[in-house]
Input
Amino acid sequence: TVSAYSPYAAEGPSIIAHRGASGYAPENTMAAFELAERLGADFIELDIRMSKDGELVVIHDKTVDRTTNEAGYVHDYTLQELQGMDAGSHFHADYADETIVSLEEVMDRFAGRIGILIEIKDPPLYPGIEEKLAEMVRRYEIIQDILGIGVSESIQGKEYIEDPGGRAGSEGIASSEGTAGIIIQSFDFNSMRRIHSLLPGIPAAVLIHADRHPLTDKTLDELASFASYINVSHDLLDGELVREILERNRKVMAWTIRNDQDMDRMKKLGVDGIITDYPG
Ligand code: G3P
Ligand code: CA
Output
Protein backbone atom coordinates (compact mmCIF):
# COMPACT_ATOMS: atom_id res chain seq x y z
CA THR A 1 0.00 0.00 0.00
CA VAL A 2 1.13 3.51 -0.75
CA SER A 3 0.00 6.78 0.76
CA ALA A 4 -0.04 10.21 -0.78
CA TYR A 5 -0.09 13.65 0.78
CA SER A 6 -1.87 16.21 -1.27
CA PRO A 7 -1.65 19.56 0.43
CA TYR A 8 -2.71 21.90 -2.33
CA ALA A 9 -4.58 19.61 -4.65
CA ALA A 10 -7.05 22.30 -5.65
CA GLU A 11 -4.82 25.33 -5.27
CA GLY A 12 -1.67 24.69 -7.26
CA PRO A 13 1.60 23.13 -6.30
CA SER A 14 2.97 22.93 -2.77
CA ILE A 15 6.01 25.08 -2.14
CA ILE A 16 8.91 23.26 -0.54
CA ALA A 17 11.80 25.30 0.82
CA HIS A 18 14.95 23.53 -0.32
CA ARG A 19 17.35 23.06 2.64
CA GLY A 20 15.08 25.70 4.22
CA ALA A 21 14.89 29.08 2.56
CA SER A 22 18.46 28.50 1.45
CA GLY A 23 18.49 31.31 -1.11
CA TYR A 24 18.23 33.79 1.74
CA ALA A 25 19.81 32.06 4.76
CA PRO A 26 22.42 29.32 5.36
CA GLU A 27 21.13 25.96 4.15
CA ASN A 28 19.87 23.35 6.61
CA THR A 29 19.97 25.69 9.62
CA MET A 30 17.24 26.80 12.00
CA ALA A 31 17.47 30.29 10.47
CA ALA A 32 16.65 28.89 7.03
CA PHE A 33 13.77 26.77 8.36
CA GLU A 34 12.30 29.64 10.38
CA LEU A 35 12.47 31.92 7.38
CA ALA A 36 10.77 29.30 5.20
CA GLU A 37 7.91 29.15 7.68
CA ARG A 38 7.63 32.94 7.80
CA LEU A 39 7.56 33.08 4.01
CA GLY A 40 4.61 30.71 3.98
CA ALA A 41 6.26 27.60 2.53
CA ASP A 42 4.21 24.41 2.84
CA PHE A 43 7.24 22.24 3.58
CA ILE A 44 10.87 22.53 4.49
CA GLU A 45 13.24 20.12 2.77
CA LEU A 46 16.33 18.97 4.67
CA ASP A 47 19.10 16.39 4.33
CA ILE A 48 20.07 13.90 7.02
CA ARG A 49 23.21 11.90 7.81
CA MET A 50 24.46 10.08 10.90
CA SER A 51 26.99 11.28 13.47
CA LYS A 52 29.75 9.14 14.99
CA ASP A 53 27.47 8.37 17.93
CA GLY A 54 24.59 7.34 15.66
CA GLU A 55 22.42 10.46 15.86
CA LEU A 56 20.54 11.94 12.90
CA VAL A 57 22.02 15.27 11.88
CA VAL A 58 20.92 17.79 9.30
CA ILE A 59 23.61 18.44 6.71
CA HIS A 60 23.83 18.05 2.96
CA ASP A 61 27.45 17.06 2.28
CA LYS A 62 29.39 13.98 3.44
CA THR A 63 31.89 16.33 5.04
CA VAL A 64 31.54 19.49 7.09
CA ASP A 65 34.09 21.32 4.91
CA ARG A 66 31.82 23.45 2.71
CA THR A 67 29.26 24.60 5.25
CA THR A 68 31.19 24.93 8.53
CA ASN A 69 34.46 26.22 9.92
CA GLU A 70 35.78 22.65 10.41
CA ALA A 71 36.87 19.82 8.12
CA GLY A 72 36.28 16.08 7.92
CA TYR A 73 33.52 13.50 7.55
CA VAL A 74 30.23 14.00 9.38
CA HIS A 75 30.43 10.41 10.66
CA ASP A 76 33.76 11.15 12.38
CA TYR A 77 32.16 13.71 14.71
CA THR A 78 29.76 13.23 17.61
CA LEU A 79 26.46 15.05 17.64
CA GLN A 80 27.75 17.37 20.34
CA GLU A 81 30.83 18.23 18.29
CA LEU A 82 28.68 18.90 15.23
CA GLN A 83 26.32 21.08 17.23
CA GLY A 84 29.30 23.23 18.18
CA MET A 85 30.20 24.02 14.58
CA ASP A 86 29.47 27.36 12.95
CA ALA A 87 27.19 26.51 10.02
CA GLY A 88 26.24 30.10 9.18
CA SER A 89 29.38 32.16 8.52
CA HIS A 90 30.01 30.50 5.16
CA PHE A 91 26.79 32.18 4.03
CA HIS A 92 27.12 35.54 5.83
CA ALA A 93 28.76 36.82 9.02
CA ASP A 94 25.31 37.72 10.40
CA TYR A 95 24.60 34.00 10.74
CA ALA A 96 27.68 33.07 12.78
CA ASP A 97 25.46 31.74 15.61
CA GLU A 98 23.83 29.09 13.42
CA THR A 99 25.12 25.58 14.08
CA ILE A 100 24.59 22.14 12.66
CA VAL A 101 21.35 20.84 14.19
CA SER A 102 19.98 17.39 14.91
CA LEU A 103 16.85 16.14 13.16
CA GLU A 104 15.28 15.89 16.60
CA GLU A 105 15.75 19.62 17.19
CA VAL A 106 14.07 20.40 13.87
CA MET A 107 11.20 17.99 14.54
CA ASP A 108 10.69 19.43 18.04
CA ARG A 109 10.40 22.88 16.60
CA PHE A 110 8.53 22.29 13.35
CA ALA A 111 6.65 18.98 13.28
CA GLY A 112 2.95 19.73 13.00
CA ARG A 113 3.60 23.40 12.06
CA ILE A 114 4.99 22.96 8.57
CA GLY A 115 5.51 19.93 6.36
CA ILE A 116 8.93 18.30 6.55
CA LEU A 117 10.48 16.60 3.52
CA ILE A 118 13.37 14.55 4.89
CA GLU A 119 16.04 13.37 2.45
CA ILE A 120 18.25 10.47 3.51
CA LYS A 121 21.69 11.16 2.05
CA ASP A 122 23.99 8.26 1.00
CA PRO A 123 22.20 5.62 3.11
CA PRO A 124 24.84 2.89 2.47
CA LEU A 125 27.29 5.06 4.44
CA TYR A 126 25.07 4.94 7.51
CA PRO A 127 23.82 1.41 8.22
CA GLY A 128 20.59 1.48 10.22
CA ILE A 129 19.69 5.05 9.27
CA GLU A 130 16.22 4.01 8.04
CA GLU A 131 15.43 2.23 11.31
CA LYS A 132 16.65 5.19 13.33
CA LEU A 133 14.51 7.58 11.30
CA ALA A 134 11.47 5.29 11.50
CA GLU A 135 11.84 5.17 15.28
CA MET A 136 11.89 8.96 15.47
CA VAL A 137 8.93 9.44 13.14
CA ARG A 138 6.90 6.91 15.14
CA ARG A 139 7.69 8.85 18.32
CA TYR A 140 6.26 11.99 16.75
CA GLU A 141 3.19 10.11 15.57
CA ILE A 142 2.57 9.04 19.17
CA ILE A 143 3.11 12.59 20.47
CA GLN A 144 0.72 13.98 17.89
CA ASP A 145 -1.86 11.35 18.80
CA ILE A 146 -1.56 12.24 22.48
CA LEU A 147 -1.87 15.95 21.72
CA GLY A 148 -4.84 15.18 19.51
CA ILE A 149 -3.35 16.84 16.47
CA GLY A 150 -5.20 15.17 13.65
CA VAL A 151 -3.38 14.68 10.42
CA SER A 152 -5.69 16.97 8.53
CA GLU A 153 -5.77 19.77 11.13
CA SER A 154 -2.09 19.92 11.69
CA ILE A 155 -1.18 21.47 8.38
CA GLN A 156 -3.66 24.22 7.69
CA GLY A 157 -6.57 21.94 6.99
CA LYS A 158 -4.82 20.05 4.25
CA GLU A 159 -5.30 16.35 4.36
CA TYR A 160 -4.05 13.03 3.24
CA ILE A 161 -6.04 11.59 0.40
CA GLU A 162 -7.00 8.10 -0.44
CA ASP A 163 -4.82 6.60 -3.08
CA PRO A 164 -6.84 4.41 -5.40
CA GLY A 165 -3.76 2.36 -6.23
CA GLY A 166 -1.66 2.24 -9.32
CA ARG A 167 -0.94 -0.15 -12.11
CA ALA A 168 1.94 -1.49 -10.10
CA GLY A 169 -0.46 -3.55 -8.04
CA SER A 170 -0.54 -1.57 -4.80
CA GLU A 171 -3.86 -1.90 -3.04
CA GLY A 172 -4.28 1.75 -2.20
CA ILE A 173 -5.36 2.82 1.24
CA ALA A 174 -6.45 5.97 3.02
CA SER A 175 -3.35 7.34 4.65
CA SER A 176 -5.03 9.18 7.45
CA GLU A 177 -2.61 7.73 9.92
CA GLY A 178 1.01 8.82 9.84
CA THR A 179 2.72 11.92 11.09
CA ALA A 180 1.25 15.00 9.50
CA GLY A 181 3.14 16.38 6.61
CA ILE A 182 6.19 14.19 6.78
CA ILE A 183 7.53 12.83 3.50
CA ILE A 184 10.78 10.89 3.23
CA GLN A 185 12.86 10.89 0.06
CA SER A 186 16.15 9.62 -1.32
CA PHE A 187 18.05 9.03 -4.53
CA ASP A 188 18.52 5.50 -3.19
CA PHE A 189 15.56 3.37 -4.26
CA ASN A 190 16.40 0.50 -1.88
CA SER A 191 16.42 2.85 1.05
CA MET A 192 12.96 4.12 0.13
CA ARG A 193 11.68 0.57 -0.28
CA ARG A 194 12.90 -0.03 3.26
CA ILE A 195 11.27 3.16 4.54
CA HIS A 196 7.98 2.18 2.93
CA SER A 197 8.00 -1.16 4.69
CA LEU A 198 9.00 0.38 8.05
CA LEU A 199 6.58 3.31 7.79
CA PRO A 200 3.76 2.35 5.40
CA GLY A 201 1.65 5.35 6.45
CA ILE A 202 4.35 7.88 5.60
CA PRO A 203 4.74 8.82 1.94
CA ALA A 204 8.07 7.79 0.44
CA ALA A 205 9.56 9.64 -2.51
CA VAL A 206 12.26 8.73 -4.99
CA LEU A 207 14.56 11.36 -6.43
CA ILE A 208 15.30 11.14 -10.14
CA HIS A 209 18.27 12.79 -11.80
CA ALA A 210 19.90 12.36 -15.20
CA ASP A 211 21.54 9.00 -14.31
CA ARG A 212 18.10 7.39 -14.08
CA HIS A 213 16.61 9.07 -17.10
CA PRO A 214 14.70 8.17 -19.22
CA LEU A 215 12.51 6.12 -16.91
CA THR A 216 11.09 3.03 -18.55
CA ASP A 217 7.50 1.92 -17.98
CA LYS A 218 8.86 -1.03 -16.02
CA THR A 219 10.92 1.18 -13.71
CA LEU A 220 8.01 3.56 -13.19
CA ASP A 221 5.74 0.64 -12.30
CA GLU A 222 8.31 -0.65 -9.86
CA LEU A 223 8.78 2.76 -8.23
CA ALA A 224 5.02 3.18 -7.98
CA SER A 225 4.82 -0.01 -5.91
CA PHE A 226 6.49 1.68 -2.92
CA ALA A 227 6.84 5.40 -3.66
CA SER A 228 4.02 7.92 -3.31
CA TYR A 229 6.09 10.59 -5.05
CA ILE A 230 8.45 10.62 -7.99
CA ASN A 231 10.55 13.78 -7.50
CA VAL A 232 12.33 14.72 -10.68
CA SER A 233 15.10 17.16 -11.57
CA HIS A 234 13.14 19.94 -13.31
CA ASP A 235 15.18 19.84 -16.53
CA LEU A 236 14.08 16.22 -17.09
CA LEU A 237 10.40 16.96 -16.62
CA ASP A 238 8.06 17.29 -19.56
CA GLY A 239 4.37 16.77 -20.15
CA GLU A 240 4.82 13.12 -21.00
CA LEU A 241 6.71 12.20 -17.83
CA VAL A 242 4.26 14.13 -15.65
CA ARG A 243 1.39 12.27 -17.34
CA GLU A 244 3.08 8.89 -16.85
CA ILE A 245 3.52 9.57 -13.14
CA LEU A 246 -0.01 10.90 -12.65
CA GLU A 247 -1.46 7.97 -14.61
CA ARG A 248 0.01 5.71 -11.95
CA ASN A 249 -1.74 7.75 -9.28
CA ARG A 250 1.56 8.97 -7.93
CA LYS A 251 2.60 12.54 -7.30
CA VAL A 252 5.43 14.52 -8.80
CA MET A 253 7.62 17.24 -7.37
CA ALA A 254 10.18 19.24 -9.34
CA TRP A 255 13.61 20.23 -7.97
CA THR A 256 15.41 22.56 -7.62
CA ILE A 257 13.77 25.72 -8.93
CA ARG A 258 15.79 28.91 -8.75
CA ASN A 259 14.17 31.29 -11.25
CA ASP A 260 10.74 32.50 -12.38
CA GLN A 261 11.00 30.94 -15.81
CA ASP A 262 11.47 27.41 -14.44
CA MET A 263 8.82 28.09 -11.80
CA ASP A 264 6.28 29.03 -14.51
CA ARG A 265 7.16 26.00 -16.62
CA MET A 266 6.64 23.67 -13.65
CA LYS A 267 3.30 25.25 -12.79
CA LYS A 268 2.15 24.82 -16.39
CA LEU A 269 3.20 21.16 -16.30
CA GLY A 270 0.91 20.70 -13.29
CA VAL A 271 3.43 19.30 -10.82
CA ASP A 272 2.25 18.68 -7.26
CA GLY A 273 5.21 20.35 -5.58
CA ILE A 274 7.99 22.79 -6.36
CA ILE A 275 11.22 22.45 -4.41
CA THR A 276 12.91 25.83 -4.43
CA ASP A 277 15.66 27.85 -2.72
CA TYR A 278 13.35 30.88 -2.89
CA PRO A 279 10.04 29.94 -1.31
CA GLY A 280 9.07 33.63 -1.08
O1 G3P B 1 14.84 17.81 -2.87
C1 G3P B 1 15.63 17.57 -3.97
C2 G3P B 1 17.05 17.96 -3.80
O2 G3P B 1 17.26 18.33 -2.46
C3 G3P B 1 18.00 16.91 -4.19
O3 G3P B 1 19.28 17.41 -4.37
O4 G3P B 1 21.60 17.77 -3.73
O5 G3P B 1 19.92 19.46 -3.11
O6 G3P B 1 19.97 17.29 -1.94
P1 G3P B 1 20.22 18.01 -3.23
CA1 CA C 1 18.15 17.50 -0.50
In short: The CA atoms of residues 54 and 78 lie 8 Å apart. The chain has a mean pLDDT of 88.
